[in-house]
């Protein structure tokens, strides 16, 4: 079988082959992202990790600190610029290889505006939409994780529900933004290994069809 290795370079730089992980707070994206990141040929990028790794002395780092310091979200165009710099650094450091690694985007793009800004830089194969019908279960997960990680503020009821409202208002519309044949619904109301199995059943065929074997 011949592989469809698409061109990875455009006039404005690298074009990353990716799938997107979307789901409400508490649905288990972080857990799945960590497990996926351990698999050769997969590179997982979460917006949280990206911001935490920012050099506070860099221009983007200083801008991020300004907004974070007053509790505001970083503007969309700056977020995508930070992502571009982050990805370029990972390529330079040979941590991520666009030729062999499928990129998992987790938490970015956050909204439709960011989706438009990031579109020229990625070839998107699938939107993996993690769904859990019981909202209270997800609230319980968020509070439990916050207490376990000693993030007491995130365990407060108002904070949990605010994060949910932001997701519903800004991020969930992404599902209708993309062609529906690109969206793969995952039942996240299951044990973690079952959810991982569902996700892998979607991304393994993509890896086989579009990427070189990273171990060869």
Write the layout of secondary structure elements.
Blueprint: E1 9-10, E2 13-14, E3 16-22, H1 29-37, E4 42-46, H2 47-52, H3 59-69, H4 76-92, E5 102-106, H5 112-118, E6 122-131, H6 135-148, H7 157-171, H8 174-177, E7 183-187, H9 192-210
Parallel strand pairs: 3-5, 3-6, 4-5, 6-7
Antiparallel strand pairs: 1-2
Walk me through the structure.
With 216 residues, the protein is an alpha/beta fold. It has one domain (23-209): 3-Layer(aba) Sandwich (Rossmann fold). It has 9 helices and 7 strands; from the N terminus they run βββαβαααβαβαααβα. A 5-stranded parallel β-sheet has the order 4-5-3-6-7. The longest helix has 19 residues, at 192-210. The protein is globular, with a radius of gyration of 17 Å. The two termini are 16 Å apart. The model is unreliable at 1-12 (pLDDT under 50).
Number of helices: 9
Strand adjacency order, main sheet: 4-5-3-6-7
Number of domains: 1
Specify the helix fraction band: 40-55%
Just give the CATH class: Alpha Beta
Q: How far apart lie the N and C ends?
A: 16 Å
Give a quick account of the main beta sheet: strands, pairing sense, barrel closure: 5 strands, parallel
- Total strand count, please? 7
| Known CATH architecture | 3-Layer(aba) Sandwich
Q: If you compute it from the alpha carbons, what radius of gyration comes out, rounded to the nearest whole angstrom?
A: 17 Å
Give the CATH topology.
Rossmann fold
Output mean pLDDT: 86
Order of helices and strands: EEEHEHHHEHEHHHEH
Going by CATH, the homologous superfamily would be P-loop containing nucleotide triphosphate hydrolases
The fraction of residues in strands falls at 15-25%
Low-confidence stretches: 1-12
Structural class: alpha/beta
Shape: globular
